[in-house]
Automatic annotation (TrEMBL):
SUPFAM superfamilies: C-terminal effector domain of the bipartite response regulators, TPR-like. Keywords: DNA-binding, Transcription, Transcription regulation, Two-component regulatory system. The lineage of its organism: Bacteria, Bacillati, Actinomycetota, Actinomycetes, Kitasatosporales. CDD domains: BTAD. Residues 1-100 form the OmpR/PhoB-type domain. Belongs to the AfsR/DnrI/RedD regulatory family. Coiled coil: none annotated. It comes from Streptomyces macrolidinus. This is AfsR/SARP family transcriptional regulator. PANTHER family: TRANSCRIPTIONAL REGULATOR REDD (PTHR35807:SF1), TRANSCRIPTIONAL REGULATOR REDD-RELATED (PTHR35807). Residues 1-100 bind DNA.
Amino acid sequence: MEIGVLGPLVVRIDGTSVVPSAAKPRQMLALLAVNAGWGVKVTTLTEELWDSSPPSGPAGVVQTYVKQLRRAIALALGPEHEYAPKEVLSRSYAGYALNMPVPVMEADLFEQLTGRGLRALADGDDATASKLLGEALAMWRGPALADVRIGPALRVELLRLEEARRSALEGRITADLRLGRHTEVIGELLALTERFPLQESLHALLMLALYRSGRSWQALETFRKLRASTAQELGIEPSLRVQRLHRAILAADPRLDLDTPSLAAF
């Protein structure tokens, strides 16, 4: 079984998709897929599908969706398969679970690569970190579960995945800066700081990349924009770390040169 959530939903058995076209069954399959191998309670499924406005007899509607999914699974398995649809989508005291031996989980592979990349970054192996984190980020096919309606349970999972993606991205850009690729990451960082106007770490990376590219005034303008955003939205100043980086740029601090290991010095 292949399960992919880093983009449109993918659930394949022996190469055959079992993702339904109808919105509610697709949403239910997505929640089962992100919890593959674990039971999902009927109450959780109900909350995900209908939030605070369930239909009368929601457990019966859930069971109807289960039957639809099992029919798709049966077609994918074929008549000769060793597993039955009720084993692949099983019922237990905890609810329903999607089960297949050794499923290929796209999100798990992404998180494994990210973990290895961040460890390499911490160890100072910047080339390996950039490579591994770049491979991890390349696994994303678009926004997570881009073709699935998102309810409360899936929203939690998406927040977790997006945070992991941002961590991988910041790690890869940090490695690239250490490798002297400052001009190569400016465009990417400009787009990211527009998307996340309150994300200090991204602004700090952009400030450093701009400074090292001989664009000090733009680095200072980046700080000004961050300061205005945090004051307007949060009523606070940027962190002391970013303020120290700002002062270092104003003073052309030699620690900002390419041989500086990281932003941790500020």
